[in-house]
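Re-run with default settings, no changes from the original entry. Doing this only to confirm the output is reproducible before filing.
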Amino acid sequence: MATVRMIGNNGMFKGIYHGKQCHVADIAAVLSRAWSAGVDRIIVTGGSLEESKEALAIAETDGRLFCTVGVHPTRCGEFEDSGDPDKHFLDLMSLAKKGVAKGKVVAIGECGLDYDRLHFCPSEIQKKYFEKQFELAYAMKLPMFLHMRAAAEDFCDILGRNMDRFGSGVAHSFTGSVEDRDKLLSFSNLYIVEWISTMPNFNLNEFLEKMKTWFLWLCEGTFDTYRVNGCSLKTAENLEVVKGIPLERLMIETDSPYCEIKNTHAGINFVKSLWPSKKKEKYEQECIVKGRNEPCLVRQVLEVVAGCKGVGDIEQLSKTVYHNTCRVFFPQDLDSAADALLSGSHDAK
């Protein structure tokens, strides 16, 4: 039913938390829950050269898994730490080419700017290698999976200088202000992603048939889409920002294993879908782990978005989000039938 962003090489899916083994590796169980819940495809995100290699290896294990190649802003120091930044970039390029040839790499990223965590990487290094990665998108003719935290001005300046280097993109895990939102929406080829981390079964026959990917990233040649998840829905201000994102430029994700919707979040009252859970110390394979987000929970993000935007027809909202996702990441699945699903949807904003 959906395509959900997932950091599949994270230690939590190996049962490791803060360096301690708490339970057995359970990526197979996590994926099984996702498929059973109606998730049809998952994109595993790369955040460094090594993570991108691991993401591609994971994606090759299942026809429903795809991945990105890129370096997260907080990891951009690895270019210079490698001792040969140019070779490091060429290694990324080679990996991206390999993944594209296999039909597995669908975007460049996660890249961008994160000024909330400058202790991991200085802003000047982040800016330098954020801009460099547009060369990857241009060479591979792929959309960009973008990250922005507390850096709207520099982020938009760099995007503006590189508009001719990429066709479309999505700003994921968006947590900015109304002003930041409007700056991003000024780029016609950018989407915004709301992340709440997982997506449970969506018992909709026609939707499940068409919903081959519910990825909530970007759309066809335009950078006007926002991607939201649980971290985008924490506060009342966050919900107000989401209200102002046009549905045709919106995607959703889980960002698992992070960004689950918590009981303290402003959007929790809109959540209807629940899964049995256990603490990691009392792990049971049939239950999700408390505090760890999973792809099966993405439905919760959809429910919060629908609730805060006052959308009564959650099925139609799902179709719109699906359409947005396909336009960017899986254009081969976008056809007249998919367009037909959107009839009347744009009135529900």
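The chain has a mean pLDDT of 81. The chain is about 35% helix and 15% strand.
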